[in-house]
Amino acid sequence: MLQVIAAYLLDLIIGDPRKIPHPVVIIGKGIDLMEKYLRRWLVPLFGLKAAGVVLTCVIVGLTYVIMWVIAAEAARINGWLGLAVSIWFISTTVAVKGLGDAAMDIYVLLRNGDIPEARRKVGWIVGRDTGRLNEAEITRATVETVAENLTDGIIAPIFFAFIGGAPLAMAYKAVNTLDSMVGYKNEKYRELGWASARFDDLCNYIPARLTGFMLLLTFVLLGKPVRPVLRVVVRDAPRHPSPNSGIPEAAVAGALGVRLGGINCYGGIESFRAHMGDPLEDLGKEHILSTIRIMHITSGLTVLLGAVLIYFIRMGAL
């Protein structure tokens, strides 16, 4: 409980310092290396799907075991060292500061009228083509990304850290990294990344719905009517390509009174993303600030209520 609270605060204060190697980068290199070996030795014998299952199991399993050994050895050397190591590793799985800072940078650029730089910066956090986006489209891309990443970048790592500490939080991050690297529906990864994508959906199933619940609590605190938000979530979330990402995206759209989704371009090819929300207001850069505020309140509420819940569970067990 205290580790998660401290890790959350640490992320808010320092985020992910560039001078310190990030565990996700190491996990990513491991995925790259193992993919090469599997394609060379296992795919010719058992096929791409089987190789994808092995890739997912080995990367996630090794991440958990290595993290458990590191935390245990640090605690064996010194209890405070073990605590510090666990807190730092958990903090690297949470992206409140990084996501908020990236969105704020884009807002400032839009406020200053620097559309070209805003296009470039939003291209760092989205996969779509950004070279021709106008202010409303840049805003939509930013709001969608913050809302969507509220689950896998913040709430899910917190959820798994409460359950299993640094090892389980880091194992979840391995699942998330696998999905972002091989979970594509293109010719190269459709079969190899199938297991990673499905496992990511499974791991995010409960956290996504927890995110939706926490967002409703946030909107109550902000004095926003909850019933219209619920209507939008029930109506629009199932239309999202992801079984999980539509929940926070639809909830944020309903609370802001804006319509998300629409035409995106990937490699010059247009792709329609189902609409989320009703266009009660035109999308404007101020909606980025509102989304960042929602993200901070929701994440803070999750940590607070999670800590209270675990405290009472432990008191009851005693």
Overall radius of gyration: 20 Å
Strand order of the largest sheet: 1-2
What profile does the largest beta sheet have? 2 strands, antiparallel
Overall pLDDT metric: 92
Category from helices, strands and their pairing: mainly alpha
Strand content: under 5%
Tally of separate helices: 11
Overall number of structural domains: 1
Q: Which geometry do the CA atoms define?
A: globular
Could you name the ranges where pLDDT drops below 50 across 5 or more consecutive residues? none
**Spatial gap, N to C terminus:** 16 Å
Q: Considering DSSP H and I runs of 4 or more, what fraction of the residues is helical? A: over 70%
SSE string: HHHHHHHHHHEEH
The total beta strand count reads 2
Tell me what the structure shows.
The chain has 318 residues and is mainly alpha-helical. The chain has one domain (2-317). The chain contains eleven helices and two strands. Strands 1-2 form a two-stranded antiparallel ribbon. Strand 1 (260-266) and strand 2 (269-276) form a beta hairpin. Helix 3 (48-77) runs antiparallel to helix 4 (79-93). The longest helix is centred in the middle third of the chain and has 48 residues, at 135-182. The two termini are 16 Å apart. The mean pLDDT is 92.
